[in-house]
Design brief:
Layout: H1 6-12, E1 21-22, E2 26-30, E3 38-44, H2 57-73, E4 80-82, E5 98-102
Antiparallel strand pairs: 1-2, 2-3, 3-5, 4-5
The protein binds adenosine monophosphate.
Adenosine monophosphate binds next to loops.
Length: 103
């Protein structure tokens, strides 16, 4: 938990954000500024600033499974995923997240 991290606060329930899906490893919620009709974020409960700081193979795998589960629950058969890593690549929130876009 990072007290200054917006996604940590969302995970803690500070904003009563509705989760599309959640399990012990991750939560999935809708992006506040959607770039597609369906735009979800798959977010590990653990505060990790970016993909560069995550080497845990099990958690990396869980995140990929979370992408598939979120897509399934949103009724998506086709979807695009994106991970922005670092400021120059457009990362704005420094808590690892995977964008899932579809429809
Ligand atoms: P990135 O540029 O990869 O860091 O993406 C951060 C994403 O988080 C952007 O698409 C934002 O619209 C989204 N975002 C920021 N704050 C919130 C929030 N409070 N709830 C949901 N999505 C958010």
């Amino acid at each position: 938990m990072d007290e200054n991290c917006i996604f940590c606060k969302i995970i803690r329930g500070d904003f009563n954000t509705e989760f599309v899906y959640e399990n012990e490893h991750l939560v999935v919620f809708n992006d506040i500024n959607p770039k597609a009709p369906v735009h979800m974020l798959v977010v590990p409960r653990l505060h990790v600033p970016s993909l560069n700081e995550l080497d845990d193979k099990e958690l990396l795998g869980e995140l990929m499974l979370g992408v598939k589960e979120a897509a399934k629950r949103a009724g998506l058969k086709s979807y695009r995923t994106q991970i922005n890593t670092g400021k120059e690549a457009g990362q704005e929130v420094f808590h690892l997240h995977i964008h899932v876009l579809g429809k």
